[in-house]
Each structure stands twice: as C-alpha cells, then as structure tokens.
Amino acid sequence: xxxxxxxxxxxxxxxxxxxxxxxxxxxxxxxxxxxxxxxxxxxxxxxxxxxxxxxxxxxxxxxxxxxxxxxxxxxxxxxxxxxxxxxxxxxxxxxxxxxxxxxxxxxxxxxxxxxxxxxxxxxxxxxxxxxxxxxxxxxxxxxxxxxxxxxxxxxxxxxxxxxxxxxxxxxxxxxxxxxxxxxxxxxxxxxxxxxxxxxxxxxxx
Length: 205
What we know:
Glutathione S-transferase Yfyf (Class Pi), Chain A, domain 2; 7% strand
C-alpha cells in the first residue's frame, strides 16, 4: 500500500486525503510530527528535500512531494471520477482556478499563519505584524471575490466538483480554525458552497 506522510490538521495533506477518498484509494497514513520537526530530519529530507508534507511514498520506495503532483498521480491510477478535467478547455480552466486559489488565497493565509499567535508561540520566526495585517485584509478581499463568483456557479471551476473545490475547502477550513480568518457571515454564496462541499463524505477527513 502507498504511504502518505501526514500530520493532523495540516491542510495540504488533507487535500490529498480528500482526493484519495473521492477516488476510493486507500493510503497508509504515516504521522510526521511537525511539532517535533520530523519533516526536517535527514531521513525525511531524503524523501523530500524541501522538508514539507505531504509526501506520497510508493510501494517501491519512490516518493512524490507536493499536493497537486500527488493528486495527479492518483488520478492517473484511477481516472474516474475525473477531478482534473475531461477536455482541453476544462483541464486548463480547472488548473487556472486552482492556481488562483493557491497563489492569491493560500499564500496570504500562509503569511497570516506564520505571523499569527500559534506560530509566534513556537518562537521559530521573527514575526512581522504589518505583514499579517496586510495578508488578513487580502484574505478577506478574496473571500468577497469568491462570494461574487459563486453567485453564478455551483462549484469553483464550473458545474461539477473538482480538485479546485478541494483546494478551496482545505484553505478555508484551515484559515477558519487555525488563523482566525473565517469568512464573514454575510457571504451567503460562499457559505452555501461550503455547506454543499462539506456534505460530501470525503470532506469529513
């Protein structure tokens, strides 16, 4: 069985776990204790020189890092249900929507996380309060954008569930629970989308 290096509450491994659940692919979860810096040990760095999770370890010992490449690998193993696109336009559209979320939302959540109280209590970084103030504002602006966009479509990248919805769900749930960046209550289209996505069994991971 393939192994997934995971840590409870970490959003990027969760993306892979949701994706695998949608595909009915079983993975052996290996806890990589980030609090103990196990992802920075020499042994782990052999699996991923960037020292990050998730990492998918194949049965022959080869490793794949980064959430989207891992998900692409899983999709190549189990093509249906398709989550990356079925024709050239849809493939490109889903990719672009997913990249928007990663580059414009995830990065800002990450800045707020690194400069927030939980990471601050670890004493790992010199925090920049002004950076958090700016990133918090950017996250909320992106939530407003999503709310407008989801007023016209049921899902992030069209009329069906895709990897882009998984990326957004993991981002919003992490931001809400760990970074104090829950979307405002009046963003009804975004909340309706979230309710719809969290009704899927895979979202309970």
